[in-house]
Specification:
FAD/NAD(P)-binding domain; three-stranded parallel beta sheet; three-stranded antiparallel beta sheet
């Protein structure tokens, strides 16, 4: 995959995204559609855009999908929630927000997630893996049914729509990509000057 080119450092940005792996790219993609200016910072060189997702098998968590139903896998958001919560063991006051996040993600994974990815051109192999395999009931750790949907083209294909959009935004100046950089602690008043060359040293790209 072609690297995202570096750009001159802006004096300000609406949002600083730290990390140009899949999560950082998706966050940047969403911010672009909200018409925000983004500073995308990553500790690796430009050729490493996408991070570990580039080398991954491209497996995604989906619930009650057409692929599952075609293979006779009986899944539901209720079963997925039992699996997730049995593994997470939410039982502390500080688990309030993680619990809300888990419920929101389960709604996404059992609802619009597949259609959203399909709209981006992402397709799945007609087989499903069982990553983080659990027991055979929803009261044990892990997934009680297969939910690991494998993207056709694996990790690179999963990254492509997000990298393409971010690269376009770099060309127009809406995104500034800083490679071989790390950031000091970030606050709402953080200057873009807080993003320093990483300890491994600056790279040409």
């Amino acid at each position: 995959m072609n690297p995202i080119p570096p750009h001159t450092v802006p004096t300000e940005a609406d949002v600083i995204v730290v990390g140009a792996g899949l999560a950082g790219l998706v966050a940047t993609w969403e911010l672009l559609y909200a018409d925000k200016r983004v500073l995308l910072v990553d500790q690796e060189g430009a050729a490493s855009i996408g991070g570990q997702a580039w080398w991954s098998f491209g497996g995604l968590f989906l619930v009650d999908s057409p692929e599952q139903r075609r293979l006779g896998v009986h899944d539901s958001i209720e079963l997925a929630r039992q699996d997730w919560f049995a593994s997470a063991g939410f039982d502390r006051a500080e688990d309030y927000w993680p619990t809300l996040w888990a419920d929101a993600y389960l709604d996404f994974a059992s609802g619009e997630k597949r259609a959203w990815l399909h709209g981006l051109g992402i397709r799945f192999f007609p087989v499903i893996g069982r990553a983080e395999r659990g027991g055979y009931t929803a009261l044990e750790h892990g997934n009680s049914v297969p939910r690991f949907h494998i993207v056709r083209g694996t990790g690179p294909a999963l990254l492509t729509p997000f990298v393409t959009r971010v690269r376009q935004a770099v060309q127009t100046g809406q995104v500034t990509a800083l490679h071989r950089r790390t950031c000091s602690p970030v606050s709402p008043h953080t200057s873009t000057d807080a993003c320093w060359p990483s300890p491994s040293g600056p790279a040409p790209n």
